[in-house]
Amino acid sequence: MASAALALSVTACGGKSSSDAGSDSGGDKAAIAYDIGGRGDQSFNDAAYAGLAKAEKELDVKGSEAEPSDGEGDADKVQRLTELARAGNNPVIGVGFAYAPAIKKVAPKFPKTTFGIIDDASVTGDNIANIVFNEEQGS
Predict the structure, then answer these.
(1) 20-72 pLDDT per residue, tens
(2) CB 136: neighbour CB atoms within 10 A?
(3) 81-125 confidence digits (pLDDT tens)
(4) Contacts of 6 (CB under 8 A, 6+ apart)
(5) ABC transporter substrate-binding protein PnrA-like domain: which residues (predicted)?
(6) Could you state, in order of their start, the residue ranges of all structural domains in the chain?
(7) Which CATH number fits domain 2-137: 3.40.50.2300, 1.20.140.10, 1.10.10.10, 2.40.128.600?
(8) 0.85 cut: is pTM over it?
(9) CB neighbours of 38 closer than 8 A, spacing ≥ 6?
(10) 29 CB contacts (<8 Å, ≥6 apart)?
């Protein structure tokens, strides 16, 4: 879990807060879109939250979080990521491979925003960071 926390912290310091649709001024902002289970799952989601909390504390980043709904589809994830990017969050991190199709759709619309995806390397782009850990190393 420490690796996921570190990854978010490092990604969060990678760029200034900006989006193509305009954003609030007033510092860096980062967002996490959780996978099913959400915060409190004692797994990936909690590790991502720990990274966001660390970025808030150590890097003075304002964090945003978005929880999934049971049974949601890709369109819901697209909407969630779009809203987070429009709000000026940079980076926007999708927790889990289920966000791959949504990031593939949304990232090109916000080229100045970095999108991160945890546990997936299938989606690539100039503004996409793949955060994949070696399974044999555990958390």
Answers:
(1) 334 444 569 999 999 998 999 888 899 999 999 999 999 999 999 999 988 89
(2) 5
(3) 999 999 999 999 999 999 999 999 999 999 999 999 999 999 999
(4) 51, 54
(5) 35-139
(6) 2-137
(7) 3.40.50.2300
(8) no
(9) 45, 67, 68
(10) 17, 23, 61, 62, 63, 64, 87, 88, 89, 90
